[in-house]
Structure formats: C-alpha cells, structure tokens
C-alpha cells in the first residue's frame, strides 16, 4: 500500500513531543515518536525537510527496505537526530502494517514470550524520609521494581526528583535557558549507600531496587559505588560513567558485582557492540525511538541475548506514549527481556494521545489493538503549541562543567 503523505506534529502537552504521522492510499495512518528532548525541532526539520518527501509513493509494507534506504541513503550515518528520525518512520510503518492486517505489533514480531512486561517506577524524595514514603507508595500500587533517587545533602539540586506540584518525576526540561545545577562527587558517594540502606531496612529485599547515576562518575568512582551498594543487592546501577567510553565499564566490572546498565544515549548497534560482546554490562537500555525503531532495536536485543545481556529500555516521560507503546510490544516478545522503565506522562498528554496499554500487579501490557495501539488527537495537540525548553547543565563546585 503506497504512502500518500507524511506529516510532523509538534505539541507540548506538559512537555514537547514530535510525532510523525504517515498515511497510505487506503487512509490507514501510522504514528512514530520523533522526540529528542531539548533538541526537538532538529528532528522535526530532518523529517519534514529531508525524509517526508522521500516517503511519498513508497510501499509502506517494505519496512526493511525503507529503513536501509534512509540509513545508507543519507551517507551521514548514526547520531541521535538521524536515528530518531529513522525510528519514527520505522514505528509508523509497523503501526500501519498492524492496522492493515488487524493485529497488534507484538503479534507481527512473533507473538508474546511472556504474559506481561515488568516495569519499574520512579521513587524520589527531597530527603530520605520523603523517599521512603515514595517507595512505599509504589509498592502499595503493586510495583515489583522501584528506582530510587534522593536529594544529596549539601547540594542545591539533584537529578531525578519529583517536581513539587506536578506529581511526576520527569526531566526538568522546563526552562527557556538551561538551569545550572551543582555537582559534588564526594557528597554523592557518601550519601548513596546510606539511601539504599534506609530503603532496604524499611522495606526489605522482596522487590527490585534500581538507581540512576546519570553519567557522573569516573570508572574508579563507579567501581567504589558498585562495591558500596553490594549489600543492598541492586537490580542495577544505570549510566555510572559517561556512556561513550565503552572501555570504562571494564574497570568497573573488575571491581564490583553490582549489575551495570547503560544505553539511553546510544543510537545504533555500533554504540554498544563491545559492551555486549565483551560482556561488560548486564542490561542494555536503548529506546525504540532513539535507536532506529523496532527494526534496529530488535537486532541489538538479539545480539545482547547471545551474550547474556538483558534488556531494560529507556522509558522516560520525554519519550511520547507512541514510543512507550512500541517498547512494550517489543518487550513482550524478546527472550532476553529484563525490565522496562515506566515514568508515565504528565496529565495533558492523555488529551493528545489515546493509549491502549495497561498496568496491573507491576506488569504492563501493550493491549491487543491493531498496530501500536496509540492514536493522536490533532485538535488537542494544536491546543498545546511547542515551547522552547532546555535540560539543565551541571557544574562542579569550582564552576567547571560536569556531565548532567
Ligand atoms: C532515565 C533518563 C532520563 C533522561 C532523560 C533526558 O533514566 O529515565 O536518565 O531521566 O535524563 O530522558 O531527556
Ligand atoms: Mg537514565
């Protein structure tokens, strides 16, 4: 079935989302998420100006050929902008295929390999006491896995905390200019084990405990952290060091048995090739929407399976419900599934995106609607126009830049 149009919808229901809508000659539409938090318009332009004109007239069923055409055909390969744009096209085409044959995408991928997808929720607090209340709330809702982050004493701001008043943990890409945060590694390294100890003392070991370091440590500091957290049996520590340095993980690995996860800033299989084939990590956390879509991510997950690495896809609220649904379809089918991040979306997003995924007992299911199971209400989207926003940046006590 030929593609007749491809349109880009940019909307900000709580945060910015870029959505690609592809339409075929029988009127079937498919959606792909093209959101790159803080750099949204670059992908919108890449699609509108360079990709959409190439799609019109092509056979929407030739997903593999279109993927290769966009990847090889650009000459300028890889990178977050290109791979997010390709991902949006790929997901929209899987959505169309599913709708045309009347089946959910997970069935097109060979069918479910499990009944549900275990997700982790985001507990956080301005103090350890606040954090404990937050963890208790997630356990009461039935979560089997909880990520914990709390304000580091002595620092004015800490990554990953709930925004007062919003009810959600989400990335604070909310300022017209990037906010300067302050970071001090020694304060964090002292505090992190105390935080985990408090959580395990209060709630025991009957659930999975996760933590995101957000690329802030050197390899040896990360090794020290991993060791200091061993008594608390972490499910993983995420992004312990800046992710582009694959060799760093070898050092961490040599010193600790705390499981390691990385990948949310990766875009292709080449970014994690050594990490996987040399068994330097335990979980690969790439997202459908930043890594070339379902077609490319399932290849990465297959490679990971050969080396005993499990999946743990990025599922932050800055990825749209379209991306989250695509992740759930893939998660349901892969043999080496580990866990799925679930941050949720701010309230106005449910006016714009109608979803068919569900949560029960700590597991999620993408639903059995044909395609991805997400629809966009374009009139609602138009009520929430794009807002220029940036993620924060991080500086050390002496004012020099650090990784955020
Ligand atoms: C996570 C991530 C996010 C990122 C965000 C950047 O683990 O969910 O670290 O919180 O910071 O996706 O836009
Ligand atoms: Mg993260």
Automatic annotation (TrEMBL):
Q: What is this protein called?
A: Mandelate racemase/muconate lactonizing protein
What taxonomic ancestry is recorded? Bacteria, Bacillati, Actinomycetota, Actinomycetes, Streptosporangiales
UniProt cross-references to NCBIfam families, sorted A to Z:
ManoateDhtManD, PRK15072.1
The Swiss-Prot or TrEMBL record annotates one GO molecular function as: magnesium ion binding
Question: What Pfam families does the record point to?
Answer: MR_MLE_C (PF13378), MR_MLE_N (PF02746)
Q: Name one GO biological process term.
A: amino acid catabolic process
Domain of life from the UniProt record: Bacteria
Cross-referenced InterPro entries: D-mannonate_dehydratase-like, DgoD-like, Enolase-like_C_sf, Enolase-like_N, Enolase_C-like, Mandel_Rmase/mucon_lact_enz_CS, Mandelate_racemase_C, Mandelate_racemase_N_dom
């Amino acid at each position: 079935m030929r593609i007749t149009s491809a349109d880009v919808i940019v909307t900000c229901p709580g945060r910015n989302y870029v959505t690609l809508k592809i339409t075929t000659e029988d009127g079937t539409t498919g959606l792909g998420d093209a959101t790159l938090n803080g750099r949204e318009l670059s992908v919108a332009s890449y699609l509108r100006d360079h990709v959409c004109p190439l799609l019109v007239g092509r056979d929407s069923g030739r997903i593999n050929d279109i993927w290769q055409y966009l990847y090889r055909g650009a000459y300028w390969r890889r990178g977050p902008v290109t791979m997010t744009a390709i991902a949006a096209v790929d997901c929209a085409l899987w959505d169309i295929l599913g709708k045309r044959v009347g089946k959910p995408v997970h069935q097109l991928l060979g069918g479910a390999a499990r009944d549900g997808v275990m997700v982790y929720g985001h507990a956080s607090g301005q103090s350890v006491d606040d954090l404990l209340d937050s963890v208790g709330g997630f356990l009461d809702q039935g979560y089997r896995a909880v990520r914990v982050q709390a304000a580091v004493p002595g620092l004015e701001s800490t990554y990953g905390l709930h925004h007062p008043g919003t009810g959600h943990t989400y990335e604070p890409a909310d300022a017209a200019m990037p906010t300067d945060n302050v970071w001090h590694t020694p304060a964090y390294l002292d505090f992190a084990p105390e935080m985990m100890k408090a959580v395990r003392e209060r709630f025991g070991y009957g659930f999975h405990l996760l933590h995101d370091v957000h690329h802030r440590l050197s390899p040896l500091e990360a090794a020290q952290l991993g060791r200091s957290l061993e008594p608390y049996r972490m499910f993983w520590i995420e992004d312990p060091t800046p992710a582009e340095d694959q060799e760093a993980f070898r050092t961490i690995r040599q010193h600790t048995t705390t499981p390691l996860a990385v990948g949310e800033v990766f875009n292709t299989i080449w970014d994690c090739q050594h990490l996987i084939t040399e068994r330097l990590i335990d979980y690969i956390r790439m997202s459908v929407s930043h890594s070339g879509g379902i077609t490319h991510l399932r290849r990465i997950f297959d490679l990971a399976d050969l080396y005993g690495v499990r999946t743990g896809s990025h599922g932050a609220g800055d990825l749209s419900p379209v991306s989250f649904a695509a992740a759930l379809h893939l998660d349901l089918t892969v043999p080496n599934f580990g866990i799925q991040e679930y941050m949720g979306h701010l309230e106005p997003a449910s006016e714009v995106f109608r979803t068919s995924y569900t949560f029960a007992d700590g597991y999620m299911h993408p639903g059995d609607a044909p395609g991805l199971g997400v629809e966009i209400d374009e009139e609602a989207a138009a009520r929430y126009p794009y807002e220029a926003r940036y993620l924060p940046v991080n500086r050390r006590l002496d004012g020099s830049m650090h990784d955020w």
